[in-house]
Amino acid sequence: MSLEFIGYIGNNNSSEIIPRSGPILDINHVETVAKAHENSGFDRALLAFHSDLPDALQVAQHVAHVTERLNVFIAQRPGFTAPTVFARQFATLDHLTKGRVSLNVITGGDQAELVHDGNTVADKDERYARTSEFLDVVRAEWTSEKPFDYDGKYYQVKGGFSQIKPYQPDGIPVFIAGASDPAIEVAGRHADVFALWGETYEEVRKVIARVRAASAKNGRPSPRFSLSFRPIIADTEEKAWAKADAILERARALQEKTGFKRAENGPPNEGSKRLLALAAQGARLDKRLWTGIANLTGARGNSTSLVGTPEQVAEAFLDYYELGVDIFLIRGFDPLIDAVEYGRELIPLTRKLVAERQQAKVAAE
């Protein structure tokens, strides 16, 4: 299996421990972090989606303009743009960037946030059904050599056709995330890559098996698997755990200052519920999985960490690689500094370990 690293480009310099001080769309920050990711050996960088954030598609276009090799990994929600229009937007950007586009499909688990954009489909199972139809139409626009019709519950198309197709022969990679049964079913039908938040080895093994079974049921090969972490590294293990403790205290202090409160009824999405269930088992799990920030924040998004020296965290990545994960989305709590730090040691060390493991397997055959 190949190995890839995905980073994260925020719209400004902020995180759980850094309050935003500049504009909501800080162009200098976006450009600086984008170039840092490219120079640090990342393959892709995520541009996130939220109902009150700057438009990720346009920010991604600028990131692609100021970089040469970095793939822009664009989060988008089905249901708010017509799939035919959406398909042409992505195919166009794919040509402008010579194939440096990938799609992160975010169906959305929080109806209270989704209605900010006018979402009227309240039932989560229905939202995933809509996502499946959406991707049916997008794929048809990307691949059909003649006009097509589509008659679904949520989308109806008559004579749909796009003259522009994705730049690469194998198309634009589609990542699908989600921990619920409906999410797994959609992934089995559409995912090129299935994305998970960082969990224990055992939980990752179980999810991978579920997704592979769903893919097989749809007559498709298994997708690749991506895993998201917030690595915390230092030159000794003791210093790394001390760094984690300091991050937790800074995050707690910032929450108290901003008046942050966890949702009284728990998180609305299955992924966050899973991370909180892990946090309930303890702050430290497996070899070096840390749930401190997930527990503090109510597991809002990617919030679990691997803690240790670069060599130790690289070894943990190798463990997940052996389970079938070959893409790692990593972002730190200090966006620019951590991206550079990951590129200095963690990324090359992991690539080295994986290459050695692959060579050993070939030699043993």
Describe, in plain words, how this protein is organized in 3D.
The protein is of the alpha/beta class and 365 residues long. The chain is built from twelve helices and 14 strands. It has helices at 27-39, 56-66, 83-96, 111-114, 124-143, 181-190, 201-217, 237-258, 270-281, 292-297, 310-323, 335-364, and strands spanning 4-8, 44-47, 71-76, 101-105, 148-151, 156-160, 174-177, 193-197, 224-229, 232-233, 284-285, 289-290, 305-308, 327-330. An eight-stranded parallel beta barrel has the order 1-2-3-4-7-8-9-14, surrounded by six helices. β3 (71-76), α3 (83-96) and β4 (101-105) form a beta-alpha-beta unit. The longest helix is centred in the last third of the chain and has 30 residues, at 335-364. It starts with a strand and ends with a helix.
Features:
365 residues; alpha/beta; TIM Barrel; eight-stranded parallel β-barrel; four-stranded mixed β-sheet
